Amino acid sequence: MHRTNKKRSYLETYLTLLILSALMLTGTGIFLMQFRYNPAVLNIETIGLPAERIPGTQKPSTGLPLFPMPKGLVPLSPPELFDSQNLSDKIDGKAELYLTAGFVSLQTRRFKSNAASNLWLEVFIYDMGTGQNAFSVFSAQRREGAEPLNLTQYSYRTENALFLVHGHYYLEIIASEASEDALQPMELYSKAFIDTLEVETKSVTEENLFPKPDLVDNSISLISSDAFGFNRLDQVFTAVYKLGDTEVMAFLSHRKTDREAAELAQDYQEFLIAFGGRHIEIDLSIDGAKMVDILDTYEVIFSQGPYLAGVREAQDRNHAKELAIRLYNKLKQN
Question: Residue 39: what pLDDT?
Fold first, then answer.
């Protein structure tokens, strides 16, 4: 009995030492792996290759990755490509904004700054098909209190992000921290992107159709579809004016013909009436214009040539009338 117990003791000791040795080897392997970079992430040899040749990367449908490699930034991830079918996988909750504005594709990638060890950036490059579509999402996403930049005609920054339009591309760069240290690498990447991609850039000409007095800076934006809840109203430019102590919105939309503009103006008036609005009798000195009182605010709707135009969300009917006449006269001049 004693000899059997002794043999069992030796066997248990041997198995215990064997298990401990295996655990030590596993732990050592994990420890050493922490100091090895994934070649799909930081291997310089993969930079600039087509995405289908970079391990772990989604295969793009067309062309090469759009990502330049400025000095001072190192890629932290391979590029990813998203189309209309899987865009919501990346930007869940915001995809509809881009899809209704003519979205074509999105490419994203993360970069690390050499100057700041803990700082990294994620770059979002949206191909929106046209410059007007790119401006639409740029204006819809514009942050309050942002600082305008001179990188492109439409560009600004916040504490931890940078946004711009370059041709038919809309670029967002989001930094991992809100600090002044984040500005330099974000601008560095933006300039490289602009210099690398030669695209046709056009100004949004509708900006010149809004009267300038009392116009709030950087308030002009474009609604691509379902403007003001009316599903037939698309490609509507809006601008905010400061009249007295209140803000009032002016809007306009270029239609194919004068007749289409006039019919759409009439249909939008009827839409407002159907949802509780009521006509207000007032002399506007604008042919065919109507003022509607809805939800304790005043709207004016009219057409001038191929433009549907008007004023909305005015707290004072005189402000609504004043701004509508200004907008009408500006459109007649053009």
Answer: 28
